[in-house]
Structure formats: structure tokens, C-alpha cells
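User: Run a structure prediction on this.
Assistant: Running it now.
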Amino acid sequence: MLRLLSLLLLLSLCTCDRARNGQVAETRHEWPSEQPVKFILDSDTANEIDDLFAIAYLLAGEHPSVDWLGLTSAQWFHVWSGDSTVYQSQQLNEDLLRLAGRLELPHPLGADLMMGKPWGEYDARDSPAAQFIIEEAMALPAGEKMVVMCIGASTNLASAIALQPEIATRIVAYTLGFQYDFEQGVWNKDEFNIRRDLNAANYLLNTAALELHVMPISVAVQYAWKMEATFNHLEKAGAMGAYLRRRWETNATGQPERVMWDVALLQAFLAPEQASEILVGTPPENTQRSVWVYDAIDPAAMAEDYWAKVKSID
């Protein structure tokens, strides 16, 4: 009887360790509870206002679970954006760090163009940001990892790994992008961040040694803020609040509500109890493996937590 029970328990554990598509779960890195997670945020800050709100959240209050190593700027080039998008993002990154008195935080410039060529391929797009990711990853003690979170196109991270492939095993990647149909188990790459650098997105999916977590926009879309309520909160956030309000007024003119895409991913990572993930198989055109995909978030809990921290930013 004991042998039968043991066998049933083993089968149960194996079943729980499978993704919804039947693939066996890949190993998930276990972060030591006694030390903060080393963390780099990569942001296309000048694209939409949610990037700025994500950075402000990190700058506000204490986040003892992470050791914030740096803030890198990402390109978001498209037909209407002009040819200097990464420099625009860099400028806003520096504005926010200056307002918070944190200019000492490393904030290297990212690549100005997508990885590879318009028809594909994976030529690395070198930049100070890519080199910073490489340096920080190579400096990790044996067995340790760090998080690189891309809330825009993943050009800088993918290029860093292409330049120094061994860092893939030292990084846990978090990205915002794609759409995912959980009922059908189907990926959709026809989404802004992915289309800004499809080559980089495919490169990350194809890098089997890289633990990858994805917040699809089809889940993040639940996290929407009303302009009036947001402005009321920003009145309590001093100079940073005034800056964020002006950016909403100029970048999202006349829009009474905005989805906080990037903030959703950041908060889901920092407060895992506010979200859930499942393992799913990669798209059929990519290396076949399992990656983590967020399937649910708690927008109300996220918003309450956000404003509890950001009101103390000054």
C-alpha cells in the first residue's frame, strides 16, 4: 500500500510539473531569501507614459527584495517616431533619476536600432547598455543569477547574450509583449514591443539556456488607470508627481484612461502574490521549450500598493 501511495504521489508531482500544453516544466531559479535579487530595468521610456510610472515606482520608497543595478534605455523606432528614440528614452531616464536624486545609479545608453536585419538574423547591436548587462552578469559569483526586465523592445538584452552567450545561464529575463490565447494555446507576435524588434524577441525565445518570463499584453490590459484619479494621487507625490502629470498631459493628451502595461509586469515581479504564471510551450517557429507566461493579475491590489509607495517618493 505504501508503495502504491508513493507511486501515486510521484505521478501527481509529475503532472503538476507540466505546462498546460503537456511539456515538462523547466527548472525555475530559486532566489535566496536572505539577499535581494540583482535587477536591471531596460525601458523605452519616451514611448508611452507607463514606462515613467514604472520607473517612478522603483524610485519611490523601499524595495528590499531587489538590488537595483541600473536603468538602461531602449529604442522604439517606427515610422512616426523619428530616428533618435533611444536618445529620447535616455533623456527621460536622466530626468527621472535627477528628480529623485539618484543620478549615481548607472543608466547606460542602449542601441538605437533593432537587432539583426529587416528580414531576420541575429547580429548583435552593441551599446553601452549591452556591455553593462554583460559586465554585471559576468561579475556574479558562481551559481548566482540576476534579473533583466525589458519593458520595451528587448534589443539590449538579446544583443548582450549574442555578444557573450555564456551570460544566458546567469540571467532570468522578464519581458512585456506578445499576446497569448490561453484557451487555444496560441502566441501572437503582432504587438508593439515585439514588432519593434522581432529578431530580439525570437532570439530570447530560441535561447534554451535562458529562463524567460513573459507578461502578455492580453493580460496586462486589465491594469488601467483613470486620469482624474491618477492626477489626484500625483498631487501628493511632489516634484515627481508634477512631472508625471505633465507627461500624461503631453504624451496622452485627452486620454481619460491609460493601461499601465509596464507597471503591471514590474509589480507582478516585485509582489508575486499579485499575479500568477503558468508554463507554456514556445511558438512552433521557435526552439521548442517552455517559458513562464503570466495568466492573471490583481489590478486592484496592484493599484493600492503602487500609490501607497509612490506618494512617499519625495
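The radius of gyration is 20 Å.
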